[in-house]
Amino acid sequence: MATTTVAPPLMTEERRSGRRSGGQNLGRPGFAWALPATLFFGFFAIVPLVLVVVLSFTSWSGIGSVEYVGLANWRRLAADPTMTQSLWLSVLLTALGVAVQTPLSLLIGVWAAGHQRNRAVLSAIFFLPLLLSMTAVSVLWRVLLDPNFGVPGQLPGLFGDGNLFGSRTGAIGVLVFVSSWQFIPFHALIYQGAARAVPAVLYQAAEVDGAGRWGQFRHVTLPQLRNAMITSLVLMVVGGLTTFDTVLILTGGGPGTDTTITAYYMYEQAFKSFDFGAGAAIALLLVVVATIISLIVVRVSGYDKMRSTMEGL
Fold it and tell me: Mind telling me which SUPFAM superfamilies this protein's record contains (predicted)?
């Protein structure tokens, strides 16, 4: 007599999930998991920002009682030519930093993602500035570029009188150079990771179509690095607009006020003139400007929609 085999009932989704998890449900983590990070961000970011907003409508010297002055700080800053100049200088330094750092970090990052001889050793040496603080880097270059005892003073044929900090052009050039020297390795690291994530099959297809090194870089590498490029650009914009310690140590805002950027002017108002209300207003304005520029970059680039790349596959 033939026997009939009865198939076991299909395992439900709940039972399959339970078996994979050892009898426990694999649901979305609860809010409790995010609570520590939320509290940390709220205490060290949201609360200080709210206090800065409140302080911007007051007059306070750091000692004594706080006096509410309404929009007086904002009206004074709107009529202050140094404030207008500081905003322009901040945008200028940021634009110059982007123009210098982006192509160099892109090329170095793509090169470091390859398999050339001694690539690992050279990359490790090149990335050493990332291990140093901005303060240490600024002190180092301040000594190296000293007009009396530094390198420029020993090469008058190349640097003239050797005082790079004595002119507006020279001081701005030093700030751009020092910032680029430290942060190009950081952005190159972003491009290196993104370049290694580009599928090799795309290069193989481009090679079959007859594309050379330049053609592969232009038609394969660059489109695939689009999201990494926008990420790097946003970081450059925010970092350039909020830089402070480089100006403080290298130029002190000089000569005159030729390198007094917005962040440094905020420091002068708050900690030199003891006008914390005006300093808070400048800080809030800087946050707003950096946020608006970053949002424009993200929106114009389409990065918020993550279009047109296979990056990360």
Answer: MetI-like (SSF161098)
Average pLDDT of span 165-181 = 94
For 107-152, give the DSSP string: HHHHHHTS--TTHHHHHHHHTGGGGS-HHHHHHHHHHHT-TTTSHH
**What's the rounded Cα separation, in Å, for the pair 50 and 45?**
9
Give residue limits of the domains in the chain.
Answer: 62-305
Residue type, 288: V
Q: Smallest Cα–Cα separation from 144: which of 165, 167, 169? A: 165
Instruction: State yes or no: cis peptide before 255, omega within 30 of 0.
Output: yes
State pTM to two decimals: 0.83
Please give the pLDDT value at position 105. Answer: 95
CA dist 303 and 307 (Å) reads 7
For 37-85, how does the pLDDT look when each residue is reduced to its tens digit (9 = 90+)? 999 999 999 999 999 999 999 999 988 899 999 999 999 999 999 999 9
Q: Which residues are CB-contacts of 175 (< 8 A; sequence separation ≥ 6)?
A: 93, 246, 247, 250, 251, 259
First to last CA, the chain: 56
> Looking at domain 62-305, does it have CATH number 3.40.50.1820?
no
Gyration radius from the chain CA atoms: 27
CB-CB contact of 245 with 263 (8 Å) = no
> Is 101 or 211 the better-scoring residue by pLDDT?
101
Q: Determine the Cα–Cα distance for residues 51 and 284; give it in Å rounded to an integer.
A: 10
96: which 2 tokens? 């110059």
Residues 209-244 as b or e (16 or more Cβ within 10 Å = b): eebeeeebbeebbeebbbbbbbbbbbebbbbbbbbe
Distance CA 287, CA 49 (A): 9
Spatial contact of 186 and 130, defined as CB atoms under 8 Å apart: yes
DSSP type of residue 63: S
